[in-house]
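User: Hey, my collaborator sent me this sequence without any context and asked if I could get a structure. I don't really work with proteins. Can you help?
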Amino acid sequence: MQVFNVKNNVYSIGVSDKGLRVFDIMMETKHGSTYNSYLIKEEGGVTIIDGVKAQFTAKWLDNIRSLVAIEDIKYLVVQHTEPDHSGAIPALLALNPNIEVYGSFMAMANLKEINNASFKSNVVRPKQELKLSERQSLFFHPVPNVHWPDTIITHDPLNAIAFTCDFLGQHIAPPQLRYSQEKNKQIIEEEIKLYYDAIMAPFKNDALKSVATLKSLDVSMVLNSHGYILDTKEAVDWAVDKYIKWSTVHKSDKLTVTVVFASAYGYTKSMKDVVVDELLKAAALVHVFEVPNDDLATIVTRIEESDALLVASPTFVGDGIKPIYDVLNSLNPVMGYGKYFSAFGSFGWSGEAIRNYMNRASELRFKIIDEGFKVRLKPSEKEFDDTRLYARNFISKVKAELNK
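Assistant: No problem. I've predicted the 3D structure and written it out in structure-token form, which is a compact way to encode the shape of the chain:
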């Protein structure tokens, strides 16, 4: 990736990782990615915004040297310390230990553990000004949890630029970084959605707060840390509107319950039908999904919109089953926090699935308000009555908790 002038005294000095196919162990990156980094060349000194992944240290330093001498760097702004943005920083600080480093409290604490050597650390306050010269200043705006607690946005009013690190990024390694110059906008839309779903979706409320922060600033360009930079006001507005749409959770005034079930021979399904009937009698809004047939992303979205999650499953070889665990493993404690959970189903041998699902849900910070319910093999009429009682008790307990 070539060094280029973004606007006035702001330059792109990042690197391209075209061969990247998996990011953070879990996200497919079929188009590679970039680690965007920026340099502000001002008469009062040079400022670097964010680093790059350690494997690209030499290329990054060469990019810097193509514009300035390392000893001329005065400030380094660390907006987020995930190693794909901080891994190369120790090499820079070793070459110039006089650099003043700015970031959030968490960023400075994290960088200390990455650098493993002392450096000139400066913890920023909300809206704090860093004066680069008589004409140019940077202002820092904390935006925690998009997607780490350490994240800040840096505003350059002179150029109407916001440096946003991961926020509004995409995993793609284009031949050039400007959104305005890419004719195939569809690929950007696809990748920004994939990035949002994999990285930002667990933090919807924080994403909306970050959007509000960004919208409060005079910004016509967003310089993010992955993929295309949003180099026009129209591009910024487009991406912001997408984040607002994706981050807005549409909750019903009714008690809302998502039911996810799997059934090998119809026994657990028959129990699910009884439970859903009781939920509907209680005037609940119910979303029912069968796994592995139904779309996982849709299931997760409905769980986020719900007050409670019920899973219905048989037991296989002393444990739960993969399709149900796939749902639970697509969640995290941020998504589960404050929601209610129970599990039920039919079993043939020993029935451990229910207990194991409850344990996993507890780890995800769901509220566990009963012990679940299970029957052996085909439910009898009495066991169907017991299933109805289980459902009614669950509804009653959830409503009581919600009305506290």
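In plain terms: The CA atoms of residues 55 and 88 lie 8 Å apart. You can pass these tokens on to your collaborator as they are.
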